[in-house]
Amino acid sequence: MKKKKKNIISIYLEDWLFLSLDGIARLLPLDICYRLATFVAGIVYRLDARHRKRVIQHLMHAGIAKDRQQAIAMAKRNFVHFAKFAVEFAKTSQIVTPGNIGEHVKFSGSEKSKDLFFSPGKSSQVIIITSHMGNWELAGMIYTIFSGLPLLSVMRPFDNPRISARINSRRERLNHSVCPKTGALKSLYVALKKGSSISIVADQHAGSSEGVETVFFGHPARTHASPAILHLRTGIPILVGATVKEADGFKYNVILSDPIIYKPTKDKAGDISAVAQLYTTEIEKTVAGYPEQWMWAHRRWLDINRERKQVTGNQ
Questions:
Q1: Can you give the pTM of this predicted structure?
Q2: For the chain, what are the domain ranges?
Q3: Torsions phi, psi of 51, nearest 5?
């Protein structure tokens, strides 16, 4: 079903609110912003019943929370994390620069991936898969600075075009560009052919025309197939990465998976499904390690918060 287009008054009012909150965050010291974010997160948690209930349900569905009380406590921390994330998005350009980014970021996980993809002057191209985890908005800047290669990322437009334009203007810098989700497969393929790396956020539910069924935390989910298709078509490795928050004050840990390199068989559909499961499993590992930092409000699974017709049968 198509979303109803916003009217012009709503667009301008939302844009004014965005600019106001963004301006306040940029004016205030970071520690005060964090305190305000924590306070606002508590209010939003109480008022936003739809997302509060969904986060609690999903934490229990995935087996991350042992019981409802634990799920509630984790959900509250989850709301606080994303409130702080919004503050950091506003203040990134004030605090993090190419010159000091090494003070804010460390790498962990696969040394092989670090050597292959984060060695300026000799970095290999890569298909990066990220998730709505930690501070994914910082990931593009981290990649282009530490790899020395240009990056093209897929962007899902916001409902408000003015806010979309403002956010994308911050993303598109330091050799990082974005392309719209519609028609993205062709744009991404062209970028790879030209020598760029690409980045795709692949942790959300995919429609039947663009996804394949995978297993995520033991439950069926439909995952975007485009990274698998591009990997099988080009042979360029896949890297699953997450920029997770270690502490307040822009302290992040970039967790790298081993490179995913899959040898194709004659079963094209089977190959796509197999590769999609590989990167879905890698995302699951990071989410399990830092559950408060993933966006549990997404309707990720096919067997919860969806109508029965979406769960069964071929689509």
A1: 0.91
A2: 8-310
A3: -75, -35
CA-based nearest residue to 310, from 217, 228, 211? 211
Condensed to tens digits (0 to 9), the pLDDT of residues 129-168 reads 999 999 988 999 999 999 999 999 998 777 888 888 888 7
Least confident of 108-112, 167-171, 194-198, 199-203: 167-171
Full DSSP string of the chain: -PPPPPPHHHHHHHHHHHHHHHHHHHHS-HHHHHHHHHHHHHHHHHH-HHHHHHHHHHHHHTTSSSSHHHHHHHHHHHHHHHHHHHHHHHHHHHH--TTTHHHHEEEEE-HHHHHHHS-TTTPPP-EEEE-SBB-GGGHHHHHHHHH-S-EEEEEPPPSSHHHHHHHHHHHS-TTEEEEESTTHHHHHHHHHHTT-EEEEE--S---TTTEEEEEETTEEEEEE-HHHHHHHHH---EEEEEEEEEETTTEEEEEEPPPB-----S-HHHHHHHHHHHHHHHHHHHHHHSGGGB-TTS--BSSSSS-GGGTSS--
Per-residue pLDDT tens over the stretch 76-132: 999 999 999 999 999 998 999 999 999 999 999 999 999 999 999 999 999 999 999
In whole angstroms, give the CA distance from residue 134 to residue 104.
14
